[in-house]
Fold these 2 entries.
Entry 1:
Amino acid sequence: MEAKKDDMVRKGPWKAEEDEVLINHVKKHGARDWSSIRSKGLLKRTGKSCRLRWVNKLRPNLKNGCKFTAEEERVVIELQSQIGNKWAKIATYLPGRTDNDVKNFWSSRQKRLARILQASSTTGSSSSSSNLKPQKAKKEVSVVCDFQAPPLQSYSMEEDSSARAHLCSSSYVENATTTQPLAMIQLQLTTDEMSDFDTNHIQVEPELQVQQQIPFHEIPQPHPELTFSPESREVLARLEDPYPFINVFGPPETGSLGPPFFDPAFQNPETPDIFFDDIPADMFDNIEQLPSP
DNA sequence: AACCTCATCAACCGCACCCCT
DNA sequence: AAGGGGTGCGGTTGATGAGGT
């Protein structure tokens, strides 16, 4: 019985001591040999669990606790439309973000979208927001008022584009018929959320200010194509590029895109790298880079 | 204050792939 | 060639906190 208890795999939240053991293991052996952590008796966690913990929480330079910026959201949406639910691949475009982050972001988004669609379909095409929760309706009003940014250019806005361009909010989504292309609705949600980008109205966190101070019109625009045109295939091909973001959205010539994504100094102050000071400098080179073909 | 709804996050699970023997 | 172990990925779930009624 005792031996059985010792063999038990531990599950659930990680303790600080376990994190420490895991970090020490990675220091010594690198981010591999996950199974040996258990076989050596260092932890009662499975190799998978250890790897997941490292990748999602302990790895250096993670943006833990930071909400997705408008730019990151746009990258996710753009790439998801191009390559589907390849979260790990998409995450390689977002330094400091994990596939789990991207996945969670997307599923939250889908839930929200589904709710909005359901709300609009159950009550027909009524233009009022009364079918939503009152607090939601309130939020939407403020968003509509605050939103001043130009629309994304990555999707074609055809009929009714001017209205949507200026008032891209969930309440307009609600007005949309359910036959509206999903991409369009997703775009509307995006721009809704991007109202956060209005620095005149929103207090931004210090570590995000570098990016959020960028005038909206200077943000590099993604490719306009949605279909798998030759250009899109080119984008897919760039997935092997260690810094594909530069290529996909144009060179950071204005410097506007640079800091949050490419400046090593841009780190979440809540997750300092003090644990890793004595790790060989090149040890993590492989982590952020895409695997070589 | 209690309750409800929703969003977010961390972690687990199953499957697929790769590599080694 | 086949089998097994290790690893990576995507889907799902449960816990928790925030905000509103």
Note: Residues 1-5, 124-293 of chain A have pLDDT under 50 and may be disordered.
Entry 2:
Amino acid sequence: MSYTIKDVAKEANVSIATVSRILNGQAGYSEKTKIKVMKVIEELGYSPNAVARGLINKRTHTIGVLFPKLSSSLVTDLLDGIEKAANDNGSSVIVCHTESNGKKTMNYLQLLIEKRVDGIVFASEVLKEEYYQYVKKAKVPIVLLSTESYAFPVPYVKVNDFHAAYTAAKYLIDKGHTEIGMISGNKEDIVAGKPRIDGFRKAMADSRIVCEERNIVNSSGFGFRDGIVGLPKLIEQFPSVTAIFAASDEIAMGVLSSAYQQGIKVPEELSVIGFDNLDLAEMTIPPLTTIGQPLVKMGEVAAQILFKIFETGEIPESRIMPHKVVERLSVKERA
Amino acid sequence: MSYTIKDVAKEANVSIATVSRILNGQAGYSEKTKIKVMKVIEELGYSPNAVARGLINKRTHTIGVLFPKLSSSLVTDLLDGIEKAANDNGSSVIVCHTESNGKKTMNYLQLLIEKRVDGIVFASEVLKEEYYQYVKKAKVPIVLLSTESYAFPVPYVKVNDFHAAYTAAKYLIDKGHTEIGMISGNKEDIVAGKPRIDGFRKAMADSRIVCEERNIVNSSGFGFRDGIVGLPKLIEQFPSVTAIFAASDEIAMGVLSSAYQQGIKVPEELSVIGFDNLDLAEMTIPPLTTIGQPLVKMGEVAAQILFKIFETGEIPESRIMPHKVVERLSVKERA
DNA sequence: GTGAAAGCGCTAACAT
DNA sequence: ATGTTAGCGCTTTCAC
């Protein structure tokens, strides 16, 4: 196959130990031998075998990332951050896209553990007991990203969804709206669904605005279709609605499209605020006001937590990342 | 650390060779010992060490993927396909996002080669001589995705950009348009820029429509901003334009936004066709007619080519994937 | 049907 | 400053 440390040693008339020292920047050789060895390495085009290294060091400098199928720019941003942090720490990342159903998840976990990744970023999915126990038994550090676990002591990185939804609703209220509806995503989703609904409700209650069943449409997911389908439904059950909080930007885009088709003008007749601040939020017509999450940063922090665990062996605290309202043009002040 | 094959062997009162055989489904053991060993494996929660395996087998069952910063859903779709094929072949994928500048590329290539990935998918970037030579010396199979090399014998998977652009222009022409403009992306881009411009020109020429400088606006990239900036420029130099071919969906989205701001109705006053068929093409207002590439399939095919190389050792032929017009609502027939 | 032992490419004592 | 050697966890002859 390709050259080994032995070849280099032989060619340079030194022992493999010396070559190893030079490669790893340890002490124990003269400048002269170093130059000689480096020259041989160069000539041969020798490339150290990270697999062999990994076997000894018990460190593969690889982390695994588990993602369910999600809006692409969400995943991309999160991944960008993870990769950045990994790269800064001399590691690379193996990505595994799990199906939404979750059966693939266990397989991927197994795979990652067999490959002896140094750690795992588990993103946007509920950490089931089965997963947790498996990972725990394998003693692989794990961090949750854009999700959290109530049952297990696993560090996580996410925004406070309850609070963020509260912020969104409050923003609409502050703009003078009182007839406010929500298209909520999946309310069974304990991590991103329920808390956003609760946050919405709380904001309404705190401003003494009645919020009943008719204010909220529960869609099955967080996608474009859910918005397309959701708007007519919401209007039917709540005709006086003047502003909508969509639980995701994709839902919001669906709302925008559906509104356009029905000849409803946004924001003149209907205000819309989204959630996520995806790339495409600034490309919509009109540009979408939304709740922004620092996605890249979140990915970065998640990976950094992993690296901190490698160093200290201790589990650091979780991180609640700040969200903010990104004001664009889809919400109008109500006279 | 965790358990090794030795632990399993000891616990089961057999040799490690036997355990290995059982693990790898080879012959040479009784059903009884198999059951005994499997039981121990189960109890211990033993997980074979893929790193050690890799060292012996010279096969890591990992492939590397190199991507520049691109539109997220483009990357995601391509990656989805790669991962699917990898998974089907018992492999996982390490993703590396290179900067557009390209300096990081060499580092990533080195990294992947040190990690002894079985093969590399090199996507959407120009394969420089330096890269090629390095990978060639390391004897790592490589395949180009959504790009091609004129200088080196490397298999690739992509659509025919010239032809696809021709198709786009022809579509507009067939819809009765004659005043057709293009916002072209970067014309220095030899892989996706130039060919699309040439294809556009050829279609115009074949239909005897004059196509001069004023028909085309060269933007610096393929992004949303380029469309925003490009439309006013195009209108200024070519006021009678009734239809536009945008060299990417993101450019097209920029055109849509810019048109909206200027009160130009799409498709009533201006028809727009894009290129890529990103997820968001169906979410625009109006939904975007565009040239579709089978992105997921392309990723899949690229990875499959790699696996074929592993098997046969031979370099298979490149694959030109079919493109097609995805008709939505942004182009209007001209009376 | 099963075991002993060599060795994959490297690092890390331990010598010298 | 440099070399020797024992593994890391596994697969694979080669014996029995």
Note: The mean pLDDT of chain B is 95.
